[in-house]
Amino acid sequence: MTIHSSKSVLPHFNFVFLVLLVALPGSMATAQQSDSQAQQTQSARKTKVNPPPDYPELARKLNIQGIARVLAKVAPDGGVVNVKELGGNPVLVSALAEAVKRWKYEPAEHESEVEIKFDFVLNH
For residues 40 and 110, what is the distance between their CA atoms, to the nearest angstrom? Predict the structure, then answer.
């Protein structure tokens, strides 16, 4: 009697690549917000309080830049009740999500969702 197994005998490997880049001495890292860097879509609600996220120290040290995206659920009173991370470097997305949790919007009749895109740029 022969027994056949459908399981592969080859091991399964997950590979994680980490690229480390060193910032030049004296370079400045800031999270900047301008019309081209922070965009809100899917809602006409305007912000009353929207401090930009802090540029994470780890991202600055590793020269990480790019766009982070989150989806904020905004209550009728204008407070952010939930933030869902949508995309971008996890370090940058986390910083954006923490900042958006403190944002305040104009009141509205209903709860709404707002997608926020923020471009983190290092100033050298």
Answer: 18
